[in-house]
Amino acid sequence: MFENLTGRLGRIFDRLKGRGVLSEDDVAEALREIRVALLEADVALPVVKEFVAGVRERAVGQEVLRSIKPGQMVVKIVHDRLVELLGGAGTGELELPASAPFVILMAGLQGSGKTTTAAKLARRFRLKAKKKVLLASLDVQRPAAQHQLEVLARQAEVASLPVVPGQGPLEIARRALDVARREGFDVLILDSAGRLSIDEALMDELAAVRDLVRPHEVLLVADALTGQDAVNTARIFNERVGITGIVLTRMDGDARGGAALSMRYVTGKPVRYVGTGEKLDALEPFHPERVASRILDMGDVVSLVEKAAETFDKEQAEKLAKKMAKGEFDLEDLKAQLVQLRKMGGMGGILAKLPGIQKVKKQLEQANVDDRMLVRQIAIIDSMTPAERRNPEIINGSRRRRIAKGSGTDVSEVNRLLKQHRQMRDLMRQMKRAGGLERLFGRLPSGLPPGLLPR
Prior knowledge:
This protein has 22 helices and eight strands. With 455 residues, the chain is α/β, with parallel strands linked by helices. The radius of gyration is 26 Å and the shape is flat. It starts with a helix and ends in a 13-residue tail after the last helix.
């Protein structure tokens, strides 16, 4: 997300921060480059004009130009303007009221990821807000659309409205609302039909459903990869139906990201969530401040910590902590850590949230630090016998060849993994002998989940 824009802005700001004194001409030149960078990132022209004008107004003042570190002041001004453009402080996360059912109508074009997003939201409300959720498909146009939502509902472990053949969208919506009220559901998510392009039939159907159920939220799901088309779609849907928020999908695959910067400006509606993958847990609330920091390569450590807390396995961590306290660490433990990394979004997901990552991106690519490496390492460990995982010392040459063949890797990769494990194990043993491990755990914040501190 925003990879190209981050790289361009990073080079511009590196030049500014490298100068002890800035003139108005220096700022003007940087703003011209920022303008080009934003346009190349698919940010809408009216948005670019207002953004650059706002930065210029604040950055050309004498207070900035004569400050001790004028380059850093300009970066801060750009960061603050980005936050304003993206929606200000806070988060787009929906706040669910106590009164029920809370009705959400999903809108968007066919292929934007609307149905999957509905299931992702349902799962999030069930796990995060402890809400009872009902999913209902109003899509009678696309073959098997209602069955698809049923399958996704089972995966998300929420209820779905039983399909009654022959019913139209309005009948389904009325029945879903009645079931939600009678059976005590906290949230009702209605997945409307989409089209390949905007047409009168689509808008009339959405407007009729909206008038019938009077939803609390009308969320537009848009594919970020479509760039300016997504912005135009948002504008038309807002004018014709009246949306209350936006969910951007495929943000993990969009190196430009301009749609996210433009849609709130064009519609005046907040970006609520972003989809960062195909899995049902790949949905994140949209935090303008954090996104602005990521665009400027300042990282997003807060989101990284939150993701770690979500995927944290207390029982497994307690077991590992006790073994670490004894200086023990076998290949089963290493595999558990690799699996944990994948749950947190893989190496790519973690590295994307670290500050300054763009500056070392080429080195990481050359070192093949990616999610495929994690998958291959897990496959190598899975190809070992239980005895080999517990005691890697018995893995001789013939065993290494067998493990490589079974995991579809090379012997050199098996050797690398074994060396990596050996280094981690030796480090823990050294810390154990020095008493450093206990001191390390003792300095950890008291707010950590109980059971992590070794006894």
